[in-house]
């Protein structure tokens, strides 16, 4: 056990990214996003989800996976390697799906198309989750709406969820991408945490690691929230390092001065103390 975990009597690192889907903490706003996505998939429709870096976009996808996991009616495929041309994007999608594909762009697309139709005959709906979608090549965006077109655009055989930075919205609203954008019935935005959310998040992560009392003082939480601007990723890093420094100082609470010291040393890019 690490020294700081032993010092505070914690079972595990409370701010590790290694956490099971069913243990994810989500504020009410993000639970609402997940509920909207569940409805979207059940309706066989498509969605775009955007948010600033670190606000929990991938956590939302993991929560969606957990929400749909018990149903055999959905086959989720997660794809995050999107900095590819159209053919290689579909080749990567085939790889994620575990299906064979040919060498030409047409063959690769046909493999995906046939797989979707086969799942339809099995009464299963494929759900393609495309993370970091703001990085999609334009030639892929030009073609994605064709992937959603079955039986002369009269049947919906899959659900597509694009998730990325706000740049994605800016790209989709352009005239060139209107065929795809018009098919994205759900257009959702993940907002940063509010101060109360940050306090609840820190408390929940500590409780999951075995802490039964308040460990961060209220002013430490306030400065942590302000510095992180509601980003879960930044909260995790700063809070983790604050625990380590507090343990090194033999303190039983994480106080404001320790968080300030971490922010000065880390500067959102430096090393841990």
CATH topology of the largest domain: Rossmann fold
Oligomeric status: single chain
Helix amount, in percent?
Answer: 40-55%
Distance linking N and C termini: 19 Å
SSE run: HHEHEHHEHEHHEHHHH
Q: How many structural units, i.e. domains?
A: 2
Arithmetic mean of pLDDT: 92
- The level 1 CATH classification of the largest domain is Alpha Beta
Number of DSSP strand runs: 5
Q: Structural class, from helix and strand content?
A: alpha/beta
Q: Which CATH-level-2 architecture of the largest domain?
A: 3-Layer(aba) Sandwich
Unreliable segments of 5+ consecutive residues: 268-273
The major β-sheet equals: 5 strands, parallel
Radius of gyration: 22 Å
Tell me the overall shape.
elongated
Order the strands across the largest sheet as they lie in space.
2-3-4-1-5
Strand content: 5-15%
Task: Output the CATH homologous superfamily of the largest domain.
Answer: P-loop containing nucleotide triphosphate hydrolases
């Amino acid at each position: 056990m690490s020294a700081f975990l032993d010092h505070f009597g914690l079972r595990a690192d409370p701010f590790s990214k290694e956490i099971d889907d069913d243990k994810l903490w989500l504020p009410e706003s993000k639970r609402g996003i997940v509920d909207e996505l569940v409805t979207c998939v059940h309706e066989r429709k498509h969605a775009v989800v955007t948010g600033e870096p670190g606000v929990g976009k991938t956590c939302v996808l993991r929560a969606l996976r957990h929400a749909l996991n018990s149903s055999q009616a959905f086959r989720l495929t997660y794809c995050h390697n999107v900095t590819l041309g159209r053919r290689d994007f579909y080749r990567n999608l085939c790889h994620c799906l575990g299906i064979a594909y040919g060498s030409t762009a047409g063959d690769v697309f046909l493999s995906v198309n046939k797989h979707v139709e086969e799942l339809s005959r099995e009464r299963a709906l494929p759900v393609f989750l495309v993370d970091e979608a703001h990085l999609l090549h334009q030639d892929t965006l030009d073609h994605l709406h064709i992937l959603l077109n079955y039986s002369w655009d009269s049947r919906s055989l899959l659900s597509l969820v694009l998730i990325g930075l706000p740049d994605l919205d800016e790209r989709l609203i352009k005239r060139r991408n209107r065929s795809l954008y018009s098919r994205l019935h759900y257009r959702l935005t993940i907002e940063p945490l509010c101060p109360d959310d940050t306090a609840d998040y820190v408390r929940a992560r500590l409780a999951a690691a075995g802490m039964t009392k308040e460990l961060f003082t209220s002013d430490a939480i306030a400065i942590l929230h302000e510095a992180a601007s509601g980003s879960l990723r930044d909260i995790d890093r700063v809070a983790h390092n604050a625990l380590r420094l507090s343990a090194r100082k033999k303190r039983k609470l994480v106080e404001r001065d320790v968080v300030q010291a971490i922010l000065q040393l880390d500067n959102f890019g430096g090393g841990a103390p």
